[in-house]
Amino acid sequence: MSEKKYIDVEFSQLDSERMRMFMGPQHPSTHGVLQLEVELDGEIVTDVIPHIGYLHRCFEKYAENKTYPQIIPYVDRMDYVCSMNNEWPYVLGMEKMLDIKVPEKVEYIRVIMAELNRIANHQIAIATFGLDSGAFTPFLYFFRDREMILTMFEKASGGRLLYNYFWVGGLAADVHPTFKEDVTEIVRIIRDTNAEILDLLLNNKIFVDRTANVGILPADIAISYGVTGPMLRASGVPLDLRRSEPYSIYDRFDFDIPTGRGEVGTVGDCWDRNIVRFREMEESCKIIEQALKTFPTEGDVREKVPKRIKLPKGEIYCRAENPKGELGFYIVSDGKDKPERVKARAPSFVNLGVLPEMSRGYMFSDLVMILGSVDIVLGEVDR
Amino acid sequence: MKPNEIFTKLKVHFGEEILELVENPPSDSFILVKPQKIDEICQFLRDDDALHFDYLTLLSGLDLKENLGIVYHLFSMKLKHRLVLKTLVSKENPTLPTIERIWRTADWHEREAYDMFGIIFNGHRNLIRILCPYDWEGYPLRKDYKAPEEYHGNKVPY
After folding, report:
1. Where do the domains of chain A lie?
2. Could you tell me the fold of the domain covering A22-382?
3. How many contacts (CB atoms, under 8 Å) link A and B?
4. What ipTM was assigned to the predicted interfaces of this complex?
5. Which residue in B has a C-alpha nearest to residue A53's C-alpha?
6. Hey, is B38 helix, strand or coil?
7. What is the pTM of this model?
């Protein structure tokens, strides 16, 4: 009989190397051309370094060589999921500098269009997040509904994704005659689907287990990193520019600002970010309904503006609450018909910066969920 | 607080460093400061209880022909006021202290200003290009920039 041998293993003496993995730029879960350099300890993420710039299209350089109205189509192409919202702060800034007051009807149409586009954006955000977590059906439901919004935009502006609809001092064209009925119908259907999605996806136990307590972003870190939009609100900070510094006619509407409360996990986790987006869709529906009630059908949609738009010498920073956060344009003018400098404060760019802080210490497979919950569009990150 | 009150307060604390308050409606008013002690000024703006600027909205570079400008847009979450801070550096020696540790969001913003204008932020822990490729030459948003003929054997102007 041989004696039983015990092998002493000193675990602290074992070699343990950290591994570096590259995710992207061609990867289905990076939502575009984004490269993540991930440092792993086993399956735990110890560091993430985002490498961006694959979609850099020199927006700011182009803008210096175009006249003011010619820049609007470029602005569309930054965040191509919510182009209507992108155009708004840009034209707002110019209208403020030129001291133009747009007609009442224009304000109403802008609010309705922007809120519909906010819904479309959140539909994509939640739908693709569902895809990342393995839920395919909500994606189809959301895209079916989004199609109606896009068709409505097409009737009004001629474009399905890139609209060039908000112009300085008004809109490119008046809305179509059946606008009011179309929007009412869209809001009704969106509410129906959302009630279904709540059970199908957001309150689904598999989904909750996958997203609760994952990617927690505390409020102080979020503020230090300049995070805005649903991500900041999910961390419990009720900051919404539509409420805190109302632009256009947002002060006339009654709506709530949903914040993350940590209902299934901790405040500021992936589930909170999704439920905030989901609840914002309902708030947008509320704003649209109120706007439709007092919507003036008569009137012109274009204020008189000079043929060649020249901004007075000076600079302005104009901001608006985009679906992804605070979009701002810093416009410097030296009195010519072309801007001296246009700087875009892109919410996706700023929000992506906090990704390493959020994902340290979680599993590699959770990284996909955390990135999905940031809701980035690389067209806006890289500009 | 209004910009003129903040200006007086800064003038008391930093004296010579604070140059002037530029007001020219309808454009935004801004406070022009010297670049050498920008980090101390920012730290003061963040930590003082009456100012409490805990949020850097935007940091942008500017090409003002003779000089390069750096503009800071600040916001206070608690007190809901805003401030624009501007500083100028020469094109020959475009250096100023970093504020990356004061507001973490400045990390990427400063990298972008370095990438596009060649502004050097002293003390930044990772000052590398962010939007352009890491081995790109020149600073694209400077007014005198000329795009290179080719990059790694590819023609640049299409």
Report:
1. 22-382
2. Cytochrome-c3 Hydrogenase; chain B (1.10.645)
3. 86
4. 0.88
5. B131
6. helix
7. 0.87
